[in-house]
Structures are given as structure tokens and as C-alpha cells.
Design a protein that fits this description.
Two copies of one chain form a homodimer. The first copy, chain A, is α+β, with helices and mostly antiparallel strands. Helices cover 40% and strands 15% of the residues of chain A.
């Protein structure tokens, strides 16, 4: 989390001529989100985030991400609202990068969510799933089963140097999970709703951010991503109380079918494998000059091994 | 510029119990300043910066830095005002680091200052020199002549790999500048007033920030640091118009003696050598896993070589 591309006052002034959002009062690079450069921008009309999209976000996907945020915000979801240029475009360019300005949301993310945080975040995910309905654009999940194989091939040779037996685990699970992958109700999902991407005021959700992995996929998979990232303790144990709380929060807004519940064990393994693979890839291909420390893939191999012992969705807190 | 130490919501809540500054509404790591971790903090009572001091700032120097900001702010200088804890302390600690909360200042720094920016920034430096009078604490300049020799010894062996002939340049100039180093009117100086450390609203100075090199030294040396960092163009040429503008802005507030003016050529060389040495040191000792890209020492060897040809302060724009 760092600022990759500098933006000078002069760059900012030039960019703001394209927008009708007032005079800048403050402008600071902030450490946030995936590998983009983000800036806090305050003008006499409000607070905004300026994002410069670095290599991980393909410019071709921007209409989907920005259009989705606009769609969701107009349907009452507390997410950043892209600010259009005077010409009506949702994005522009600066210093040879695509960029966008979105509204700034108040609130703070929690590192160790309580059960109440989990309930409220689960409900926020379900509301997001419902509000995504009717969004005109679609985007395939590049990090779904079809994307796992090439990812694995690009780093499997180094897997055992990260953790003994990791190459075998990845190879076997990739085949098994892909073969058992279900087809369930789907629509627009966030696909990365980790605790850092949910803002709270006290215990209430005040915002959902970072839509740069959003795509069309199964709703229940999105729930599996959340259970993986919200309900494990630092020591690797699954906190059933938090799991039940998150699931209950979700189901109170959007009911789950018996098929969705029955598929949870394989969805949990798939979600764990997805983050295991991207973290392994990032670690193996880590540029020592890069500004970001790679996250530990072993956190997710541990979760994957946990899920492999699960026989029934009830073990996660589904009733 | 990055965030080195993470601060969770829970850490922040714990810290804010020590302060009487309201309820947090937003909290973001920001990329700013020397090697500290900085966070933008908004509460229902105002906007603040939380700084966690990393290795470069010695905890023993904090009373000087924070006390100075308080002293200057109370004398009308637009600088961050440290917020005391309920117990009246200007600093606290968080995640095994000393930390402080200061008021947030509006304004934006410029990368390519105009002559008018230079005039106004020069005047701000002179006001700062005057306002420092009467501050009770003192701190020696660790990066003055006495500090150059150990710095040079710690990196001179690698100097020629950075630039051909750099070891000879540093060795000769270190001796020559130290021998010719003057004794002139002194007091509290900023010692690092680069363009990133001055905030503007339109062309007016709205704030001076980053006091973590402040110390007691010659006022004219502080002016030399500014001329070095504000008045050279990207191509290495000295912009006499900007030099004259900055000097004029300074002298309109605090007159310079003939001794101070006559000493400018050696002060300019000393200021250039100081930044050349710290940049060289940082480059040579750069940890490839560090979050910050080392700045280019060659920018300052070029400036030093320029100053070596200067015979008279008039060449910088002094009349």
C-alpha cells in the first residue's frame, strides 16, 4: 500500500480543469486499496479520492468498475460515487495513467471484527448482491476456476520453497475443486470484501470500497470469500460465532437456497485457493524494489487445509 | 514516502482515549514527510495528522520538535500545532513507537514553484526565523560540518560507483567547506524547507510542515538550503529570477548583514554537500526491501559543482 505515481500540484490543477468540483484545499497521497495510487483530495465542495490506475487494473475494465459503483450508489449502497468530468466521462487520464475521482466516504475499517461487525458486513454484502441487479455491463471473474490453472503454472515450481508440500496441495486441490465447482445463482459480486474494504461508524457499515475485483459470479462464492477473510482468528482457527453472525446477517437480507448452502464447503476451498494462488504468485514474482510487501500465502494454505476436513456447511455456522 | 507501521481501528481507539479530540470519522495512512508513518485523522471536531516516529527520529528530540511547533504556532506561524493528551503531554506511544497528533493544515505543495511562490516562501522562512526567538530548548545540527565527516566515511568507498570522481569531490570539498565555514547570526532553523514542506493556497503560504530536521544553526544556512531546493531547474540550471525573488521575500522580513551575504557561496556549497552526503548514504545503505526509493545524490553533486564556480553572492541574486 503506497503511492506509485506522483501527482504534483500542477498535475492536479490541470486535471481539475476537466471537473466541476471546486478549488483544491488539501491533497495527500494515501496508502489504500490494491496496487493503485490513491490521493485524498479536499476541495471547497467536499472530499474525494483520486485514483490513478496502475498495471493491475486494465483500462478496459474501468467502465465496468466505475459504472458499477455509480449503479450501486444510485440504489442506496454506501460506496464511492464516481464524479463525472464536465464532458460526462467517469474517467480521465493523468501522467500516462487512467484515473478517476470518486466521493470520499467516512468510516474506519476494523482489523479484528466483532460478531456484530460480521453480522452488519454480511448484511451489506447481501444488499450489494441485490442492488447489483439490472447493471448492464458484465465482467467475467478472471480469478475464478479458469484463471487458477495459468496462475498455478506460473508459480508452482517455487511453491515448495514457500511451504513443504504446497505444490502437491495446489495441484490436487485445483483439480478437485474445479471438478466439483457448482453452478448457482449469480450476478455482480464484490469478490474481495476483506475487512479493509468495509468502513464502519461505530458498529454500523458506513461504506463498501475497492471494487477493482468486482465481476459476475456466484453470490455464494462472494459469501465464501467473506467467511474466509472475516471469521478466522490470527492463530488460524475458525471462529464459529463470527461465522454464524456473518451468515445470519447475510440471510436476513437475501435468503440462501439449499443448493447454495450445500455447496459451501467446496466454495470455501475455492475461495481459499484463489487467494493462496494470487499471494503465491505475488510472492514468487515479487520485485524487491516494489513498494508493497507481499502477503503471506501460508495464511491461505492453512485455511484450505482446514476446509478440506469440513464435511458439511453446518460446520461453518449454516443451519 | 509510505506507511511503515500499521495502525488498526482498535489501536486508534485505544490511543484516542488519551486525547480529548472527539470521535473518529475517517483515518487513512498518508505518504508524507521523512521516514515516519503518517495518518490523516478526521474526527467530529476537526482534521489532524497522527505521526508514528520511525527510526530516523530520536525520541529524545521529540520535546524539541513538538515544543518548537507549539512555540511557532502560538507566535502566528502556520505550522502544525501539537495536540496535548488529557494529561498535557505532547507525545504518546503506539505500537512500540513514539507518536504525536498535530492539527491538519490545508494547502498544497508545488513541485515547480513560480517566482511568486519563491518570494512568499522566502518570507515564510524569515518569519519562522524571527518567531523562533525565545524558544527555550536547543538542538545541535546533527547534519552540520561535524556530522559530515562520519557520514562521508560511511559511504565514500561506494561513491565512485554512483558517479565517476565523486569520492574525490566529496573528500576535497568536505575539507575546504569545513575550513571556510563561517560563524553568523543563528537561532532556530527549519533546515529542510524544500518545496514539499511548504503548503500554498493559490500563491499564499498556508503552512510550513515537517520540522524533524529543525535545529539551532545559522539563519543564512537555512536560506542556502532553500535556494538549493527551490531555485534550480530540472536541467540543473540555476534560475536567477527565482533566486532573486526568494532572497527579496526573505529580506523584506528579516534583513541580511553584509557578512551573511558574503558567506553565501560557501553556505550554498555546504548545503549542497549536506544533501549530497545524506542521499549518498541512503543510496549506499538502501535496503532493497524498504518502502522508499532513495533520492538521487547526483542532483546535489551537480549543484555542488555549480557552486564551486560561483565567486560572489551576486551570482545567486543577492544585491
Amino acid at each position: 500500500m503506497a503511492v506509485y505515481t506522483e501527482v504534483s500540484f500542477e498535475d492536479l490543477e490541470r486535471l481539475l480543469r476537466e471537473y466541476d468540483i471546486g478549488t483544491p484545499l488539501a491533497f495527500k497521497g494515501i496508502a489504500e486499496g490494491v496496487e493503485n495510487s490513491n490521493f485524498y483530495l479536499q476541495t471547497d465542495r467536499g472530499a474525494f479520492i483520486l485514483t490513478l490506475y496502475e498495471k493491475r487494473v486494465s483500462p478496459g475494465d474501468l467502465p465496468f468498475y466505475l459504472g458499477l459503483m455509480e449503479h450501486l450508489a444510485r440504489r442506496g449502497i454506501d460506496c464511492p460515487l464516481p464524479v463525472p468530468t464536465r464532458q460526462g466521462a467517469l474517467s480521465s487520464s493523468l501522467n500516462r495513467r487512467s484515473c478517476a475521482i470518486v466521493t470520499f466516504l467516512n468510516g474506519l475499517s476494523v482489523r479484528r471484527p466483532s460478531a456484530l461487525h460480521c453480522t452488519n458486513a454480511g448484511a451489506a454484502l447481501a444488499r450489494l448482491h441485490q442492488a447489483g441487479e439490472g447493471f448492464a455491463l458484465t465482467r467475467a471473474n478472471a480469478l475464478g476456476p479458469a484463471g487458477w490453472k495459468p496462475l498455478a503454472e506460473a508459480c508452482i515450481a517455487h511453491a515448495d520453497s514457500v511451504e513443504d508440500g504446497l505444490a502437491t496441495l495446489v495441484g490436487e486441490q485445483l483439480g478437485a475443486i474445479t471438478a466439483a465447482w457448482p453452478a448457482l445463482p449469480n450476478g455482480v459480486i464484490h469478490a474481495d470484501l476483506f475487512p479493509d474494504n468495509v468502513l464502519f461508524m461505530r458498529e454500523e457499515v458506513s461504506g463498501v470500497i475497492d471494487f477493482y475485483f468486482a465481476c459476475n459470479d456466484m453470490f455464494a462464492y462472494d459469501l465464501a470469500v467473506m467467511l474466509n477473510s472475516w471469521c478466522f482468528e490470527m492463530d488460524g482457527s475458525y471462529n464459529l460465532t463470527k461465522g454464524m453472525a456473518l451468515i445470519q446477517g447475510y440471510r436476513a437480507v437475501r435468503p440462501l437456497s439449499q443448493d447454495e448452502i450445500a455447496a459451501m464447503p467446496v466454495l470455501m476451498r475455492g475461495a481459499a485457493l484463489r487467494f493462496l494462488l494470487t499471494r503465491l504468485f505475488d510472492l514468487v514474482h515479487h520485485d524487491p524494489n516494489a513498494l508493497v510487501m507481499p502477503k503471506d500465502p501460508k495464511e491461505y494454505s492453512k485455511k484450505l487445509r482446514f476446509h478440506m476436513k469440513v464435511k458439511d456447511a453446518r460446520e461453518y455456522g449454516f443451519e
